[in-house]
Amino acid sequence: MQDARVYNDLLTPVGFLVRTAKVFEDKVAIVHGEKRCTYKEFYERVNRLASALKKKGVQKGDKVAFICPNIPPMLEAHFAVPMIGAVLVAINIRLSASEIAYIIDHSDSRAVFVDNEFADLITPVRDQIPKVEFLVNICDTGPALPLPGLEYEAFLATGEPDPLPIEVDDEHQVISINYTSGTTGRPKGVMYHHRGAYLNGLGEQLEFHTRADSVYLWTLPMFHCNGWCFPWGITALGATHVCLRKVMPDEIFRLIEKEKVTHLCAAPTILIGMSAYADEKQIKLDRPLNIMTAGAPPAPTIIANMEKLGINITHTYGLTEVFGPHSVCQWQTKWEGLPPEERARLKARQGVPYIIAQHMDVVNLETMEPVPRDGQTMGEIVMRGNNVMLGYYKDPEATRQAFAGGWFHSGDLAVMHPDHYIQIMDRKKDIIISGGENISTVEVENVIYRHPDVMEVAVIPIPDEKWGEVPKAFVKVKPGTNPTAEDIIRFCKENLARFKAPKSVEFGELPKTATGKVQKFKLREKEWAGRQRRVN
Amino acid sequence: MQDARVYNDLLTPVGFLVRTAKVFEDKVAIVHGEKRCTYKEFYERVNRLASALKKKGVQKGDKVAFICPNIPPMLEAHFAVPMIGAVLVAINIRLSASEIAYIIDHSDSRAVFVDNEFADLITPVRDQIPKVEFLVNICDTGPALPLPGLEYEAFLATGEPDPLPIEVDDEHQVISINYTSGTTGRPKGVMYHHRGAYLNGLGEQLEFHTRADSVYLWTLPMFHCNGWCFPWGITALGATHVCLRKVMPDEIFRLIEKEKVTHLCAAPTILIGMSAYADEKQIKLDRPLNIMTAGAPPAPTIIANMEKLGINITHTYGLTEVFGPHSVCQWQTKWEGLPPEERARLKARQGVPYIIAQHMDVVNLETMEPVPRDGQTMGEIVMRGNNVMLGYYKDPEATRQAFAGGWFHSGDLAVMHPDHYIQIMDRKKDIIISGGENISTVEVENVIYRHPDVMEVAVIPIPDEKWGEVPKAFVKVKPGTNPTAEDIIRFCKENLARFKAPKSVEFGELPKTATGKVQKFKLREKEWAGRQRRVN
Question: Which ipTM score applies to this complex?
Answer without folding.
Answer: 0.92
